[in-house]
Amino acid sequence: MKFKTLFSAAFLLITSFASAFTIHYYNKDSKNYKMEVKSQGSTQSVEFNSSTTGDTSIQTSADEVEINTSCGWIKVKNSAKISIKDGCITVE
Questions:
Q1: What is the pTM of this model?
Q2: What is the pLDDT of residues 22-63, one digit of tens each?
Q3: Which long-range contacts (CB under 8 A, 24 or more apart) does 72-78 make?
Q4: How far apart are the first and last CA of the chain?
Q5: Angle 13-16-17 (CA atoms, 0-180°, nearest 5)?
Q6: Which sequence spans correspond to the domains of the chain?
Q7: DSSP class of residue 79?
Q8: Are 76 and 62 in contact (CB under 8 A)?
Q9: What are 38's strand-pairing partners?
Q10: Contact of 73 with 65, CB cutoff 8 Å
Q11: What is the pLDDT of residue 59?
């Protein structure tokens, strides 16, 4: 019985990590950005650090999210590489 419980807990932990949505970014601006993200009817925020390359994660099981930028809403797919310049996102 303990094995089943331990296995179930491990499975839930693994699936919660698998549901993370990752964006690889290069922020060309010397400004940090905090942008609104829409995913499956809910909203959350994502932060991009200034003048750096990095990764950020969003908790969702969706394959695509929408990010509100200075240039409007941009659709971004999971594991996408993006560039940020003047507050606007370009998907590479």
A1: 0.78
A2: 999 999 999 999 999 999 999 999 999 999 999 999 999 999
A3: 73/38, 76/23, 78/21, 78/22
A4: 49
A5: 90
A6: 21-91
A7: T
A8: no
A9: 43, 66
A10: no
A11: 92
